[in-house]
Design brief:
It is a single chain. Helices cover 0% and strands 54% of the residues. It is built from no helices and eleven strands. The strands form two sheets. Strands 2, 4, 5, 6, 9, 10 and 11 form a seven-stranded mixed sheet that branches. A hairpin with a 6-residue loop joins β4 and β5.
Length: 120
């Protein structure tokens, strides 16, 4: 059974930083692309960042480029999202997802999400 478990969310002031983690189990982690997406209540889920199976390729939404960094540790079956210079508009539930293909990823598995709240 595949499980993706996010952690690291919380409340932070604007300009602050958070690091999200997503621990994966039940799949061959080093063979899948990983992504972070976010959703505000009442709005569609939006892409944030993605990283290829080896970690050699990454891409970001324009809204987070230069502020967020996605990385992965295949030995630990974990993907991270380092978020800096946070803005109130970054407030959302953040989900990690695992999938096939690159750069267009077909996501097969999702975590339960972790809330990030940025106060002004």
């Amino acid at each position: 059974q595949v499980q993706l478990v996010e952690s690291g969310g919380g409340l932070v002031q604007a300009g602050g930083s958070l690091r999200l983690s997503c621990a994966a189990s039940g799949l061959t982690f080093s063979s899948v692309a990983m992504g972070w997406l976010r959703q505000v209540r009442g709005k569609e889920r939006e892409f944030v960042a993605a990283i290829s199976w080896s970690g050699g390729n990454r891409y970001y939404a324009d809204s987070v480029k230069g502020r967020f960094t996605i990385s992965r540790d295949n030995a630990k079956n974990t993907v991270y999202l380092q978020m800096t210079s946070l803005k109130p508009e970054d407030t959302a539930v953040y989900y990690c997802a695992a999938g096939r293909g690159w750069p267009k990823i077909e996501y097969d598995y999702w975590g339960q999400g972790t809330q990030v709240t940025v106060s002004s």
